[in-house]
Amino acid sequence: MHELSLMEGVLEILLESQKAHGFQRVTRVVLEVGELSGALPEALEFCFSAVMEGSPAEGAELELNLVEGSAWCGDCLQDFPLQSRIDLCPKCGAPPSRITGGNDLQVRAIEVE
Q: Per-residue pLDDT tens for 53-64?
């Protein structure tokens, strides 16, 4: 379950931010979860609660914003939605030249006290 290591990474970000800004407690964390990241939202929620226990983010609300996958076709020069890494361009049938969205998991916002 790589969601556990992802949430451990989020905790590191929160602790570094606490050290830099001196807040006491995290009340809300907003994550963007890419459709192509391989992370399961239900597993992220479960792991968030477990990993944040005993930290300044214990009991914090987790908001997950899902980001659809997208890609660029270098053959026909257009963006297209990508639901799987093996999808082909719907216009010309070429493989994507570049994945342009939905590939990451990012901390977008932290609310603190």
A: 999 999 999 999
